[in-house]
Amino acid sequence: MSFEALRALVQGWAGAGLLPAGLTHGFLVNALLSGLVIGPVLGGLGTLVVTKRLAFFSEAVGHAALTGVAIGILVGEPYTGPYASLFGYCLLFALLVNYTRNRSNLTADTLIGVFLSVSLALGASLLLILASRVNIHILENVLFGSVLTVDDRDLTVLLAVAAGVTALMLPLFNRLLLASFNPALARVRGVPVKGLDYLFIVLVTVVTVASVKIIGAILVGALLVIPAAAARVVASSLRGFFLLSVAFASVAAVAGILLPVQLALPVPSGGAIILAAGLLFLGALLARLFMKGEEG
Question: Which residues in the chain belong to E strands, given as ranges?
Answer without folding.
Answer: none
